[in-house]
Amino acid sequence: MENQTVLDMVMLSGLSDVPSLQLPLFLVFLLVYLMTLTGNLLIVLLICTDSHLQTPMYFFLGTLACLDMNSSLVTTPQLLFDLYTERKTISLQACITQSYFFLFFAVSECFLLAVMSYDRYVAICRPLHYTQIMHWKTCLLLVSGVLTFGIIIPLVHVLFLLRLTFCSSSTLQSFFCDLPQILKISCSDTSINVLLIILFGILFGLCVFGTTFCPYIIILNTVMKMQSKAMRSKAFSTCSSHLTVVFIFYGTFYFNYLRPNISGDLILDRVASVFYAVLAPLLNPLIYSLRNQELKSSLKRSLHGLLCLKKNTST
């Protein structure tokens, strides 16, 4: 076998090779990053401080906001640093660590979306038993299970990743350490790693996605039988927001992770990576807040309280 130098540092391709685009891209993604943190943090604060929002549905929504906020912290600061300095390098150890935490938040969100679907099923199809089924102990157990799967599944990928030798001089074709792209710069046999991606992808596709989507068949049937237009509208609003987030998450995530060895259009790959790694955490709070009247009312009450407090302190 030809001798090759083992990698200590990984070169990232970034978003653009055009120097004149680095600063505009930095400013755009800095704005996106600040909006992502602000939007998700605002949802968490509203849920924690407003007693009207301290229900299982908003508990899960607050958990989703925390996952999105931390997922953005894993990828976007590295992107901003690379755009500002034009350095585009990361150590191999930091690269694998980044990959683990990105997968942790992604897998956790995948299972959390299934839990949120079950919560909507119980609330709409079994409203009289909702408080008995979805009590706080159950909610905490469900979120604990979500985080447990989030820890274990990426750990399996990382353990098999550590067995590989990285001695390719190729540039990692992404702006962050995405698992399929990491495998492409290895000079070892990655067939087991690819098989794991496919197996977990099928697991999510058949089990988790089925658990997330199938309850909506029953929910839709129940909603259509409701006599009150206001109740139908409220049910459709919460369910459509959740389904929109589900399709965005699965659509972009599967686009990258179920074709790890396909050499497609690099520009299309980068756009998909930006969408699910940077834009999705921003879109989730927007989708939920714009269609959720209770969140809007909570925000209005909070702003009104702050204005009243400011007037009292000034007089």
From TrEMBL:
A GO MF annotation of the entry reads: olfactory receptor activity
Domain of life according to the entry: Eukaryota
State the UniProt keywords alphabetically: Cell membrane, G-protein coupled receptor, Membrane, Olfaction, Receptor, Sensory transduction, Transducer, Transmembrane, Transmembrane helix
Q: Where in the cell is it found?
A: Cell membrane
The record's listing under Pfam families reads:
7tm_4
Chain ranges passing through the membrane:
20-46, 58-80, 100-118, 139-162, 194-223, 235-255, 267-290
G-protein coupled receptors family 1 profile domain ranges (all copies):
39-288
Q: Which GO terms describe its cellular component?
A: plasma membrane
InterPro entries (alphabetical):
GPCR_Rhodpsn (IPR000276), GPCR_Rhodpsn_7TM (IPR017452), Olfact_rcpt (IPR000725), Olfactory_GPCR (IPR050516)
| Membrane topology of the entry | Multi-pass membrane protein
Q: Which family does it belong to?
A: Belongs to the G-protein coupled receptor 1 family.
Write the protein's name. Olfactory receptor
> Which source organism does the UniProt entry give?
Hymenochirus boettgeri (Congo dwarf clawed frog)
